[in-house]
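When time allows, look over one protein, given below as sequence and tokens. The question is which stretches look regular and which look disordered:
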Amino acid sequence: MNLPVILVAVILILVVLLLLGVPLPFCFGGAIMFMNVFADVSMAGMMMWAFNQMINLTLLSCPLFIYAGTLLSYSGVASALLDFVDIFVGKIKGGLGVVSVVACAIIGAISGSGFTGVAATGPIMIPRMVEKGYPRGYATALVTVSSILGLLIPPSVIMIMFGWITQTSILACFLSTVGPGILITILFSIINVVWVRIMPSITEGNMSLTKELPVEVDLGQDKIMSRLIKAIPALSVPVIILGGIYGGIFTPTEAAAVAAAVTIPIGAWFYKGLTVRSFLRSTRETAVSVGAIMTMMTFTLILSQTLVMLRAPQLFVDLVFRVTDNYFLILLFINIILFIAGMIVNDITGILLLAPLLLPLVREMGMSPIQLAAIMGTNLAMGGVTPPYASILYLGMRIGNCEFADILKPTMIFLLLGYLPVVLLTTYWPPLSMWLPTVLGYVR
């Protein structure tokens, strides 16, 4: 059986198994079994190769960042960050929504995860926004779409995966999504402020997030200083992590260990949200998540490496250039592939499966792998809130206690007006993703 037929069969097997609801690792397992029968590849050798890849020290940073994010969601850090951001924007109509967006970005700078933002911020902010007249579906959608900033603001788990699988500088990959992440934060905040001003039900304005303070009362100097001091330990975590990484003090893996280690005393002793029970619960949740992710990664690695050995990336490059050699059309084609992939698989799977396939193509086009990292990161992060996969969206619905019909419209508006333009800018305007890595000397 020739390679094109094998590739078409593999894609069909994956699609059919996904539509049947088969768990993701076993979908890839089915495709691997097919290739073991019809392709001249030693699966025993591929399994040994995948095992050797999985014990890579760099990969250890992923479960550690996931652990830090899970601890963070129980620690009480989110409440301090929300009160801190409220100092600056809490007095304006729409300020509560801006607080949610910015807090999710800061939490993302600690955890590197999209789930942590909605898990830590949602239970606090959604009820308070509803209390101030925000529609429940809108409030839930705002927190949910903002939580995917955790996948873009460094440190980012998916950027670690991209750097690891493509042998690209992880630090440069981190920096490549800073510009898109900040721009999305600004656009979401603007859209929220404009949208809220046409909602007659909103009673917000000059209000405080702290329950003991009455609404419509200005924060005094003492209260502002109290919030600032209370937020210092939480704000120090991303400073320690990113400062340590780019200062050359420790590696991304060591930074992940530091993030987890620092979050424990801060959550337990300073904010007092992390108890023995919640610590054990977060540890158990992390173990379950990491086990599922590592199993999925093993199957994905075997499948992607098998495709590489069969020269599928070269076949893909030749096929694309036979269709068109127009730079802008090829980039559009890449975005469509990533968008579809994000809708049906999670971000880590998308990176591991598609990065080896797309890297030869972008190199042939003369594009830097760092820009590809930003393009893949922004596209696949969107998949977390784009049905049918939409794992972050479904978590947000559970936390916000709202129906899919209520959250769908505001989610799509935020994505179309705030997120999609940044995806296109990242794709077609390289300085957005390349300026910071270039200035700091990671790209020459």
In short: Residues 28 and 299 are 6 Å apart (CA to CA). The longest helix spans residues 276-309. Residues 206-217 have pLDDT under 50 and may be disordered.
